[in-house]
Design brief:
3-stranded antiparallel beta sheet
Length: 186
Amino acid sequence: MAQKQKINGVNIDQLFNTIEQIKDNPEIAQFKFRANNTWIDGTHNCATVKDFYGALNEDTSREQLTFDIDEPPVLCGWNLGANPVEYLLVALSGCLTTSLIAHAAAKGIEIKKVESRYEGDLDLRGFLGISEEVPVGYKNIRVYFKIEADVSEDQKEELIRMAQKYSPVFNSLAKPIPVSVQLDSQ
């Protein structure tokens, strides 16, 4: 049996096989991710993730994942979890890193270490309804990468550009997407 080639922990044979399958049948690329949320008390609520649809199948193979969400005391919470805007930074960090690692692997670039830091500026006057002129969300987000690899600084910069280009979370934030919110009548 042939040894599976792995770079950065990514099975390259599987990656390129998946790409070829999707080229042959684009329907395989259609995914639907889901999350549920239940309010607990005050600013504390709990989100769960379990199943998703992808590669033409429902996937229920993993255990349910739970995410406690709360605010710090200065924002009327109890610090029982990260707050939603922190989870947004966490989602961005995971997606940019995953995109960077996978695309580096596809290019045959071995990464020794990747660390990143995320900062976002938010003015609460928008959230609190104090000022209509202040945006409710982040005003800006800054991302800083440290990459250890035997490649040039230019190649590291290119990996960061590729991470941005191919990260679904980055692109969902950087480019407006339709979001519908409605009362569930089920």
